[in-house]
Fold this protein.
Amino acid sequence: MIEIYRAAHPAQAHLLRGLLEAEGIESVVIGEFGFNVRGEAPVTTETLPRVCVVNPDDAARARAIAVSFDQGDTAGPAATWVCPSCGERVEEQFGACWKCGAARPL
């Protein structure tokens, strides 16, 4: 396994893990239970939850997804479309742009 991300909170680690799995990347969260003893044990980068990929060949793609995640793109790289009329990013489940009302391209 290869570590690709250190999370500030177990929920953050599991959210990223879910994004990775949605992209077909098998991953695990390690060290999440140490979070429960914060205050009694020192909080360092070594005691934070980590996300690791199982297949080393997936590490580069997983790191790219983690970078997008850190930049606030929790929808993932393939879960949006760009409105041809105004250029707004729209979540995949919507058939029309929320900003200008243009229909999603086919």
User: Anything to note?
Assistant: The first strand starts at residue 2 and ends at 6. The chain has two domains: 2-74, 75-106. The radius of gyration is 17 Å.
